[in-house]
């Protein structure tokens, strides 16, 4: 089974990296602010009541900073173009602009020691993340100085840029109370048609095609937004973070009623060989389990509906989450994808020692009925 992650790993690892991509990230000698030559991305972020200090709101903010390297995009595109042509017979030459847009972040060089300073609307002081390491910085920042301790709805934040830099990168903060419901959903083949099991179709869906939702799922999520009273939606995918702009556009438009932060894998161009090994040794299970731990750390008092599919490791990951966290997981819904391993043996192993009432395996013709499941009332199917 090929996952999106190992597909990209394959593609990137096969491209002549000495030509196309830098081997090491850049580490300036001193800390510095984001400047006009840098690319900065602040991911949409969840905000939560600090479990250790109730009444204080935290926002878990993650940022990426890289140097813009326009000269890398050409070699990257021609490498990928040649590889896809040779291995899959896929010709992307007529779509290079679009492929270039989708892969643009792969052509940035991660930068260390960069300070990212943000303002969140309605909150007094600017906050600064710890300096980037390998291009990334992540920290819980306090929103204690905000006018309303816990903002009721999504609020916009801005990255503070240096003088003369007219760009104004923004991000959305999604606050949610300590109780109530949440939804953790996979993206590929759960809410978006990605063809994870078919390399050619996966490459097309990821690089070229306009993204298409799994039929009926936007309506199901919209109805959950209502029946679960604005649950915190969090999308977790093992795709590399470089695909974030593409996936975020898709979720925030097609799934506007169930918009939320997207957690993606921290794949840096410096650790491709590690990632190859990691992916081959069930890295997706470990990564997704770690993301569920991360969500549990923020919202230990919520109940989550987990939504995934049978192409990768969602059944195994969600089964483990229920064994570990009990009623923190209200239900696990798994879409049975044609061609995936949908055997009783697989699901029995994945959900061993798990209350069967929490598990709902569904086929595509059962998707519309999901909207009628009374999850708030304790039902899973
Ligand atoms: C992302 O990966 C880089 C390089 O391996 C590492 O330095 C950094 O700490 C990681 N960041 C996060 C948020 O995991
Ligand atoms: C946020 O950034 C996007 C992309 O750069 C831009 O299109 C949008 O207008 C910005 N929104 C606000 C409210 O500044
Ligand atoms: C942020 O806070 C949560 C909840 O207390 C905790 O689980 C997590 O480890 C913290 N993350 C960081 C990066 O400090
Ligand atoms: C399906 O998964 C089960 C349990 O992991 C495994 O024993 C079986 O060999 C798999 N079948 C196929 C066709 O991959």
TrEMBL record:
Q: Which GO terms describe its molecular function?
A: phosphatidate phosphatase activity
List the GO cellular component terms.
Answer: actin cortical patch
List the InterPro entries hit by this protein, alphabetically: APP1_cat, Mg2+_PAP
Signal peptide start and end residues:
1-20
Describe the location of the Phosphatidate phosphatase APP1 catalytic domain by residue ranges.
Answer: 181-336
Q: Provide the alphabetized UniProt keywords.
A: Signal
Instruction: Supply the name of the protein.
Output: DUF2183 domain-containing protein
Lineage, top ranks: Eukaryota, Fungi, Dikarya, Basidiomycota, Agaricomycotina
